[in-house]
Task: inverse folding
């Protein structure tokens, strides 16, 4: 017979036990010290499935304190189902404040987006990373990719970009565009759109990356150079939404989602749900300066 | 030997597979007609190899299969780890750093800037998942050329000078003939104008007419670029056509060395005599 | 509404949670008792404990109930629970020579010292659907148990004994060589550190013991069938109870309980590296929680296969084997494809549109179809 008390159990604050949290924080420190370097860590099992944000959660839970305000987005949206589930989990195990408002958050966990609103020095953005290894596409063995990073041997990566240009006339990397951090490590920025890549470089805030399933942590500290891999004559380009605007707010400078109505018509809306709410309800928050925007959009915006 | 004018110095280069005893080297070699140690079963691929290569010189290494000639160049190109010995490259770290013992990163630098290798099997030297141009681009990128236009220009030039149709630059070598694959390999190997090139049985397995054309091209390239070469072949006619000096190897050891003409006209070692007589 | 409603995500998941609970109970059959599951789904619980890497039968039974019988999902629940417990001790190495043997067979010899003990197994039963079980009740159960106990009472009972190992016979004759992993004496605990490759054998065995049974069966089978070269013999397969001890802070050995394990010692011939040397036998070792013989055997095959140098076969390639047989991780990541990916998709889409535009404008290119296919492939590759 199962005894009643056997199944009675209280969980630790922020779920993970303190020793493991300490280990994760130590590894995060190492990650900050060596920008872009993937630090192996214990990656304890979570009651959330692998591949659903466990790496991000490890970081969040090892850092969060009672005074923190937590925000979490998935594909730019605070209300996305997985974001809701993870928010509930963090809230239930820490009783911290949560918010949808980017400016009010101290810890922002994200899957596949950086907020449109510029982040400040007191904020930490935590990425959920499915595949931390930028070289996995060109080299399948972990043993080898580790050596390649150690020796800064990025030949295969570069050739794959060259090949992409030769075959398709451009570098056909969509989300998760490979970047070089601090002039040394090639890093996967997690599958954020190219639109967000410029925001990684020389930011005020700290960026932390957690890949739970692959058991790796890495970081981009504030004011660190992050450059997308590009050739002298074939440049990195962001997604352009020329001539398009948000159906709801009229906004032009933001990453837009493409929606298909039942009438077959295509419309666009701002992807970042809080950014949209701020524009609608208050005033337009201060955005990152995106130096890859083409002039055309800039001018139309100024006219408005 | 002229000590001022050298490019590559090799001393006591040795590669042994398996456990060896103190007697292994004494009980193997041409005298025993074997490279397997009778005590431990270790295989002596090559041992006590000494030679000096001069800038722009073409050195031939001839011998039957298993004589250790391919091992020799693979050791110098860092494909294999030497058991013992050293090699020095003129102009690299005061000329007195054993390149066999430098870090992997340094070895890669040397492979990208100072040496080129053409393997018998094109698959060893080319990545068949990349286009021919991409294969050449790899070398150029690693030497710091990040301009696609100039990479393509240089790749076109190299393919043209090795007589590969430039319009096929963006195809993978998979669909190329054997001779053309070797030309692409050569283009890649010389992409960064290295002073030293290794050619390991590059014409083996090709049609005779294709062989002749390829050898012609290599000779012309050598003269145009004044690049030093180590040509490994079991075929004395290849050695005769390309090389200035020759090393004859048997059972992992050098049995004879000298000017190619001299060796062909007046072979001293019994094994060399056998080789030469079979050529005539 | 879609699953990324602008607002209302929390409400949607709350409703989904209620609905799945409703599906579990809607037929209004009496709820299963944990004790019933634990005793009558013994082998399922053994799998859950192995893959969940947590020896706690009652918890395994509860997990199985909670997830409506999905064994891997139950293992996931166990792992998550296990992660909240502090690792206070590492047990002393278990000596399986002292196992209380319930089942013990060797296929290498016709008879072995101590004898073959078939024990509880369905190996030699006909797998016909037992229709009488459909109406099994307490009375049937009691009837069987009474008869069974009567039978046993009559049989002669020998004193309980432990058995020496079959592989020791070979080892004593110098036919079986050790694995030679003397450097790997301190256990690498894969639940505490991220494994780097090549992984030491202690990590490999731990990962295999936690791996998904079906996954290691597929790879173990592949090695036997021809994608590899390990076709071993069962040196000894035993199932039984072993004592577990820990050393406390005062260096005293403490008995903490018994666990049931399956141990497989697979024997295969190892070609000697040097031509001069005689060949010898080498062991492939498998040990897992509960009675899970498929896992024990396949673990033994893979332990052996992964020690073969070179990655010529999937089963010889430790990165391939260990990454992809990790059930809970595979489960999570394959299912994460259900999460929205529209931002990622949009990013690839913008590339694709531009490429198609470029393609159309260059009229001399006739291979339009082929090119677009290539681009589509690239876009798919981006959608990680």
Result:
């Amino acid at each position: 017979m199962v005894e009643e008390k056997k199944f009675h159990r209280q969980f630790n604050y922020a779920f993970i036990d303190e020793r493991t949290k300490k280990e994760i924080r130590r590894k995060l420190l190492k990650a900050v010290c060596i920008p872009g370097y993937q630090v192996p860590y214990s990656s304890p099992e979570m009651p959330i499935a692998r591949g659903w944000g466990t790496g991000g959660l490890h970081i969040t839970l090892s850092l969060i304190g009672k005074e923190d305000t937590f925000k979490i987005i998935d594909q730019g949206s605070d209300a996305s189902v997985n974001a809701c589930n993870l928010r509930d989990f963090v809230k239930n195990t820490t009783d911290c404040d949560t918010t949808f408002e980017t400016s009010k958050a101290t810890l922002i966990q994200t899957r596949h987006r950086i907020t449109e609103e510029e982040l400040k020095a007191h904020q930490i953005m935590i990425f959920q990373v499915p595949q931390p290894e930028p070289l996995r596409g060109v080299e399948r063995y972990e043993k080898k990719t580790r050596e390649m990073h150690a020796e800064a041997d990025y030949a295969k990566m570069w050739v794959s970009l060259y090949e992409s240009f030769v075959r398709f006339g451009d570098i056909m990397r969509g989300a998760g565009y490979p970047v070089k951090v601090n002039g040394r490590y090639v890093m996967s920025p997690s599958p954020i759109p190219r639109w967000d890549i410029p925001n990684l470089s020389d930011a005020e805030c700290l960026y932390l990356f957690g890949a739970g399933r692959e058991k790796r942590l890495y970081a981009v500290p504030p004011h660190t150079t992050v450059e997308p891999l590009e050739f002298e004559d074939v440049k990195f380009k962001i997604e352009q939404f020329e001539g398009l605007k948000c159906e709801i707010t009229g906004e032009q400078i933001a990453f837009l989602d493409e929606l298909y109505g039942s009438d077959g018509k295509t419309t666009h809306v701002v992807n970042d749900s809080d950014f949209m709410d701020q524009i609608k309800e208050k005033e337009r928050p201060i955005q990152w300066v995106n130096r890859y925007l083409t002039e055309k959009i800039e001018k139309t915006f100024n006219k408005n | 030997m002229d000590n001022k004018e050298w490019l590559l110095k090799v001393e006591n280069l040795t590669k042994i597979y398996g456990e060896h005893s103190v007697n292994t080297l004494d009980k193997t070699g041409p005298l025993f007609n074997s490279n397997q140690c009778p005590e431990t079963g270790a295989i002596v691929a090559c041992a006590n190899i000494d030679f000096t290569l001069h800038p722009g010189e073409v050195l031939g290494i001839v011998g039957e299969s298993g004589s250790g000639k391919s091992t020799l160049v693979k050791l110098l190109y860092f494909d294999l780890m030497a058991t013992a010995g050293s090699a020095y490259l003129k102009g690299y770290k005061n000329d007195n750093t054993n390149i066999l013992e430098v870090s992997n990163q340094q070895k890669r630098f040397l492979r990208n800037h100072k040496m080129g290798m053409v393997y018998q099997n094109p698959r060893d030297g080319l990545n068949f998942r990349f286009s021919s141009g991409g294969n050449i681009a790899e070398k150029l990128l690693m030497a710091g050329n990040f301009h696609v236009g100039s990479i393509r220009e240089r790749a076109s030039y190299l393919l043209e000078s090795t007589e590969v149709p430039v319009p096929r630059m963006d195809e993978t070598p998979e669909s190329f003939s054997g001779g053309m694959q070797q030309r692409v390999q050569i283009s890649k190997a010389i992409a960064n104008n290295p002073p030293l090139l290794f050619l390991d049985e590059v014409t083996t397995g090709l049609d005779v007419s294709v062989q002749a054309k390829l050898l012609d091209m290599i000779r012309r390239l050598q003269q145009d670029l004044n690049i030093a070469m180590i040509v490994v072949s079991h075929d004395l006619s290849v050695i005769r056509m390309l090389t200035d000096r020759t090393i004859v190897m048997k059972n992992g050891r050098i049995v004879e060395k000298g000017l190619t003409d001299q060796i062909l006209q007046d072979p001293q070692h019994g094994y060399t005599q056998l080789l030469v007589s079979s050529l005539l | 509404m879609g699953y990324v409603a602008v607002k209302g995500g929390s409400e949607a998941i709350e409703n989904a949670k209620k609905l799945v609970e409703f599906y579990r109970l809607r037929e209004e059959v009496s709820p299963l008792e944990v004790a019933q599951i634990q005793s009558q789904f013994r082998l399922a619980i053994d799998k859950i404990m192995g893959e969940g890497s947590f020896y706690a039968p009652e918890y395994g039974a509860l997990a199985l109930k909670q997830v409506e019988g999905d064994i891997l999902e139950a293992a996931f629940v166990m792992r998550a629970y296990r992660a909240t417990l502090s690792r206070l001790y590492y047990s002393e190495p278990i000596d399986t020579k002292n196992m209380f043997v319930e089942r013990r067979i060797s296929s290498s010899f016709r008879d072995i010292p101590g004898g073959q003990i078939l024990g509880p197994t369905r190996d030699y039963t006909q797998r016909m659907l037992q229709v009488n079980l459909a109406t099994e009740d307490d009375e049937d159960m009691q009837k069987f148990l009474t008869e069974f106990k009567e039978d046993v009472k009559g049989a002669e009972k020998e004193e309980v004994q432990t058995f020496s190992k079959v592989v020791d016979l070979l080892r004593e004759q110098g036919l079986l060589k050790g694995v030679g992993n003397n450097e790997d004496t301190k256990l690498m605990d894969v639940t505490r550190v991220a494994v780097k490759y090549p992984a030491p054998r202690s990590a490999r065995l731990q990962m295999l013991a936690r791996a998904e049974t079906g996954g290691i069966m597929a790879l173990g089978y592949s090695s036997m069938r021809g994608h590899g070269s390990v076709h071993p013999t069962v040196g000894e397969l035993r199932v039984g109870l072993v004592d577990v001890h820990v050393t406390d802070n005062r260096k005293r050995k403490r008995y903490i309980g018994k666990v049931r394990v399956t141990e497989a010692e697979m024997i295969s011939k190892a070609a000697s590296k040097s031509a001069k040397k005689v060949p010898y036998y080498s062991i492939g070792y498998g040990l897992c929680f509960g009675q899970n013989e498929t896992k024990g055997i396949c673990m033994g095959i893979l332990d052996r296969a992964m020690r073969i140098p070179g990655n010529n076969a999937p089963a010889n390639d430790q990165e391939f084997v260990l990454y992809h047989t990790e059930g809970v991780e595979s489960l999570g990541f394959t299912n994460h494809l259900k999460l929205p990916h529209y931002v990622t998709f949009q990013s690839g889409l913008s590339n694709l549109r531009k490429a198609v535009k470029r393609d159309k404008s260059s009229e001399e290119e006739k291979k339009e179809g082929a090119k677009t296919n290539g681009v589509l492939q690239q876009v798919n590759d981006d959608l990680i």
